[in-house]
Amino acid sequence: MQRSKRLLAAGLGIVFAGIANAAMAQSEIKIGEINSYSLLPAFTEPYRKGWQLAVEEINAAGGINGKKLVVVSKDDGGKPADAQTAANELVSSENVVMLTGTFLSNIGLAVSDFANQKKVFFLAAEPLTDAITWAKGNRYTFRLRPSNYMQAAMLVEEAAKLPAKRWATIAPNYEYGQSAVAVFKKLMSEKRPDIQWVDEQWPPQGKIDAGPVVQAVAAANPEAILNVTFGADLVKLVREGNTRGLFKDRTVVSFLTGEPEYLDPLKDETPEGWIVTGYPWYSIKTPEHDTFLKAYQAKYNDYPRLGSIVGYETIKSAAAILTKANSTDPEKLIAAAEGLAVPSPFGEIVFRKIDHQSTLGAFVGKTALKDGKGVMVDSVYRKGANYLPSDEEVMKLRPKE
Amino acid sequence: MAFYFVQFLTGLASAASLFLVASGLSIIFGVTRIVNFAHGAFYMLGAYVAFTLTERFSGAIGFWGGIVAAALIVAVIGVLVEMVLLRRIYHAPELFQLLATFGLTLMVEDLVVLIWGPSDLLGRRAPGFKGAVDFFGQNIPSYDLFLIALGPLVLGLLWLLFQRTRWGVLVRAATQDRDMVAALGVNQKWLFTSVFAVGVFLAALGGALQIPRDAVHHAMDLRIIVDVFVVVVIGGLGSIIGAFVAAVLVSELNAFGILVFPKISIILVFLVMAAVLIVRPWGLFGKAEAPARRTPGLTVNPWRPLTSNERLAAIAALLLAAALPLISGNYALTVGSEIAIFVIFAASLHFLMSVGGLASFGHAAYFGLGAYGVAFLAKMAGLPMIPSLLLGPLLGLAGAAIFGFFAVQLSGVYFAMLTLAFAQIVWSVAFQWVSVTGGDNGILGVWPEPWAASPSHFYWLSLGIAALSVAALRVIVFSPFGFALRATRDSPLRGEAIGIDGKRIQWTAFVIAGTVAGIAGALFAYLKGSVFPDNLGISLSVDALVMVLLGGVETVSGAIVGAVVYKALNIWLVSQTDLSKLVLGSFIVLIVVAFPKGIVGILETLRHRRRSDAPKPAVLGIESAE
Lengths: 401, 626
Hints:
The structure holds two protein chains of two kinds.
Chain A: H1 2-24, E1 28-35, H2 41-60, E2 68-75, H3 80-93, E3 98-101, H4 105-118, E4 121-124, E5 141-143, H5 148-159, E6 166-170, H6 175-191, E7 196-201, H7 210-219, E8 224-227, H8 231-244, E9 251-258, H9 260-263, E10 275-278, H10 287-300, H11 306-325, H12 330-337, E11 341-342, E12 349-350, E13 362-370, E14 373-382, H13 391-397
Parallel strand pairs in A: 1-2, 1-3, 3-4, 4-5, 6-7, 6-8, 8-9, 9-10
Antiparallel strand pairs in A: 10-13, 11-12, 13-14
Helix pairs in contact in A: 2-11, 3-4, 5-6, 7-8, 11-12
Chain B: H1 2-32, H2 39-56, H3 59-84, H4 96-116, E1 121-122, E2 132-135, E3 138-141, H5 142-164, H6 166-176, H7 178-183, H8 188-208, E4 215-216, H9 220-235, H10 240-260, H11 268-279, H12 308-322, H13 324-327, H14 330-355, H15 364-380, H16 385-391, H17 393-407, H18 412-432, H19 434-437, E5 443-444, H20 450-453, H21 455-477, H22 480-490, H23 492-497, H24 502-528, E6 530-531, H25 538-551, H26 558-576, H27 580-594, H28 599-613
Antiparallel strand pairs in B: 1-4, 2-3, 5-6
Helix pairs in contact in B: 1-5, 1-6, 1-8, 1-9, 1-10, 2-3, 2-4, 2-8, 2-9, 3-8, 4-27, 5-6, 9-10, 9-11, 11-18, 14-21, 14-24, 14-25, 14-26, 15-16, 15-17, 15-18, 15-24, 17-18, 17-24, 21-24, 22-24, 25-26, 26-27
């Protein structure tokens, strides 16, 4: 009895909420947004600030063809199943016109599969897995951030110039780490057939036992190291590596380490001279970025992280797609998004028609220590468009529709 | 050679950190029998408080003083928790304290982010232990050497404390026989409080000592808690030396294991635990548990089948639930389906726990196996939905048959931990075997066929299967097999004396529970359209435990209410607030204090009391225990 009463009450509540919403719906457009707010606050807090800034700017400039833009945001707790519950709520009871967001690759894929099944437009913000646009790509899913492949290609360009021949890898033992290493190895070996891979370490994500790992890598005596760990694992690895002298006279190439989210916690222990991808907000001198930086700092009195850029650009892109389509029909949204050029703080980006990947790039540079803090120096923006495989290859990778 | 020696020392340093935390857990469990899930939370709090103190007070005295002060402060928090919360529930059913400490852990995870912010924090290096010592060309961090010395030192101090003080004698006596110590007039309240304080102090010290080599962040607790449990169990519950040996064993195996199999870390501790428990059922240094004086599943209200009125009420409730699609939208229906699926899952664990007296910490394994079974059949064999739904759970059955055979040889917490180890082994297979399972990217596109695809149809399907499953489990409870199972639970010796083959009965119950969990998993795969290793994970197993305990472990079907309340609340909170863990944790703690028998347990007690007061049975609108 209790069960049914509770369900009844829940049901009635939802019905009333729906009626109230319908009255509002005439004058506004709703976008659904899902991310791992409770699991990964270090990344998702700046991300949320970024998209909130974008919403404010869009509505101040007149909204989407005169309608107010509203973003309904949900937490997925880092679980694919919960992300689907949230997606379902957004689509079925909030009546959003599109889904955006997600951080972890498996959650991105789960929501992308949901979007494909329910025929809903989905703009993935942060998941890096190549599968989301290639092996498991579908027509309803677009992705903003430069993929694993693109970041690997940017790093390989620099790494191939190094004299080092003996390489070791350290990567978290899950899909992201595995595919980052696989792509890096493949591209690197193409450019430098003389390279030897002398050791690989696969600590579990979030649970690295750094001492033995550092010791094991040192024992293989590599000339250069590829690192894919991030967050707390990276901190542990760097501390052990510094103490044990692992990075002395060795070049390290490292995914994402230049992003403030991961570089700032290293403080005065930041290792110098690592070749990294990242976001040096303090040294980007373009008018587009200046505008963004000023607006962000004025609103939050804090500096932006890469998550802020991703959140900001996700909603800006979503708004551009909605404005161009001037409709909420998913098919029209897809047509509008394919090939659409959107301005961004990093310069103009394009959502490619062929695989729905955006051409947003990343900065590649070297880590350095300045006033007891880690920074990126010698950084150059790499346009995403230049680091994607040829169209024929992409066609082969992506399932036929 | 120098390399292997240094690798050995590195392993010892890892072991020392693990041992500090594990020893605290072991002491607490030994005396109070509390499975302290919040131990990781105290470890994390120790690190956060130490971070704040060492940032404020610099210098050697500031640092080392800060570390010790942090451990003391957290120990005081621990004492408050024990006095305010745990003291009220020592007499609650076994494992109920797990629920309370689980709620606390949820709260702490959100609180540290609120207090210290979301970013990872980098603590200071220890003054005097910043560099490394050169050993034949290999560098050993001097802080590692400090930890290596500290481990045995703490072990020695604890040994002295337990062997040479009156308090230690009492603690050891209580570890062996709590009731006898109480009968001899020892004030148990303060003994328990002091033991809890010492345990929490050790956990917080372990956390505080991590700040020179780790980042302080809000997921530290989960990173360590399971490993620590495993170490305690490998060593033998309540044995400090056992915890030390197990910590060294696990850390050294890991340090050398990664040289040969770099991917071993993810599963190593569980492999070791499974191997140890199969050979030595009470861990390396543990002793067989003394036979319990109190019946484990003591039911205040004797169980009985539903009366015909109650049956009608149950059917009416079911019909009402089935009318949901008439009044609500698609989202509510999908949530309804999910809740129905979790009713099946929780009911299957409840069957094992309350009827069989076997608390499994790894029940998600069979749920996930059912889900993967469906995914394999639908995606690889291309079978249609109905055969997949029928055959998929067989994978859960097979898993339960194999693992159950080994697990039922053990009992109590050792049984629970062995099931956890098996679940983690299955999880890591799903996680690692990328070519078959897709790894953590899972298997996508397992959507139901058109006839079941609409939310209302899928809801009716789930509800129907849930009703059938619950009814079937109830029939089993009141069948001769059910009575035999309860006999084995209440008194294995007497059961055996009247010719019941206890192990075989328990094994059968394990297989039944695993199969029903597999059915839930199979439905879940179609509900979500995808299968991930998460479906086999620890957090899902814990969810199921929480549902059962929330409903009331001493009831016949309390898990149904537990599942509905927990799942609905969880989904609603996650949707409404970013602080869902804080709110959910507080709710669980409140429930624990207010209803120490679970929701249904307390309702039944109330009804029982009324019935004995009034000659005519009072009509209460609560038949949720159907």
